[in-house]
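Appendix C: a fully annotated inverse folding record. The material below is reproduced so that readers can follow the format used throughout the book. The structure is listed first as tokens, followed by the designed sequence.
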């Protein structure tokens, strides 16, 4: 299994990043509707640019494996806040599922915080380049 560690870590990052890149881009495409949804849930629509930056930018950083631990920590917080602010109607099964999904995704990001992005990442490449330049 150790031989598969680098490609599996890459696939794991891509799976985690996928939803954030898609959702971030979708919020750009449906900016007005998203702002209205935020407002209806008691969240200032003025935060929408930050939400888009977090989702799209964070997702791309995770996919590339660049600044991975920082991006994963930010997206952990994002997932937990999203669960608490938008998916807190526990009488609605769909909201319970979305709440649970956000908690699970936060757990995946905490794994990246703890263990890093793996050998097939820009972070690892940067580390190898800086090691070689010190030699």
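Designed amino acids, in order:
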């Amino acid at each position: 299994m150790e031989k598969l560690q680098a490609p599996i870590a890459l696939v794991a990052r891509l799976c985690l990043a996928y939803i954030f890149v898609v959702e971030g881009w979708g919020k750009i495409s449906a900016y007005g509707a998203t702002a209205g949804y935020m407002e209806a849930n008691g969240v200032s629509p003025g935060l929408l640019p930050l939400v888009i930056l977090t989702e799209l930018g964070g997702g791309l950083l995770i996919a590339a494996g660049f600044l991975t631990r920082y991006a994963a920590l930010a997206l952990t917080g994002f997932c937990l806040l999203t669960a608490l602010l938008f998916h807190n109607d526990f009488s609605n099964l769909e909201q319970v599922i979305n709440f649970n999904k956000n908690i699970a995704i936060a757990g995946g990001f905490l794994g990246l915080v703890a263990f890093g992005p793996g050998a097939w990442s820009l972070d690892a490449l940067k580390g190898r380049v800086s090691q070689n330049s010190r030699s």
